[in-house]
Amino acid sequence: MGLMNAFQIGREGLSVHSKRVEIAAKNIANIDTPNYTRKIPIISSNQDQSFATVLSSMGMGALTGSTNLGGVNFDGIVEDPTPGAKIYKPGHPDADKDGYIRTSNTNAMVDIADATIAQRAFEASLGVITISKAMAVSSLDIGK
Fold first, then answer.
1. DSSP code of 65?
2. By three-state DSSP, how is residue 51 classified?
3. Which residue has the higher pLDDT, 68 or 53?
């Protein structure tokens, strides 16, 4: 893995984890919004876990196929299927024909924990970029 690959992994991490924090913040902001459905970010690994890739990364064989050695992808958002509680509020603009509204299915503790985890992952991605930059600068100093 080269320095440019490390920068790419860090950049992908910053992008994905900032979206995770944004989604958690939106969920928390809509806790009291009737009929709001909690959003869940979908992320996946870019890492190729094939045996040939592992051997090649160890310098033991010819690489055939993908050379993805890390990073994350943001694959979209899904809605939490858990229904919110029903509250009887006849006359409310969002009430159904029986006078009930659905509360948001957002749990503040879950979304605060998600935001905290995403923030720490963002900081780790920033650390990858910072360390890669320091390595690049050190490499230039060696060449002087």
1. S
2. helix
3. 53
End-to-end CA distance of the chain: 24
Is 60:1 a contact under the CB 8 Å cutoff? no
Residue 52: both structure tokens together = 């040939």
Q: Where are the beta strands (DSSP E) in 62-141?
A: 72-79, 86-88, 100-102
CB 89 within 8 A of CB 100: yes
At 144, list the tokens. Answer: 């002087």
pTM reported for the whole predicted model: 0.77
Q: Which residue has the tokens 């943001």?
A: 74
Going from N- to C-terminal start, the domains of the chain cover 3-30+39-79+106-142
CA–CA dist 51, 54 (Å, integer) = 5
Output the CA angle 58-63-68, nearest 5 degrees: 80
Contact predicate 16/72, CB 8 Å: yes
**92/87 Cα distance (integer angstroms):** 11
Give residue 64's pLDDT: 47
Which tokens belong to 135? Answer: 């390595």
Rounded mean pLDDT, 92-101: 89
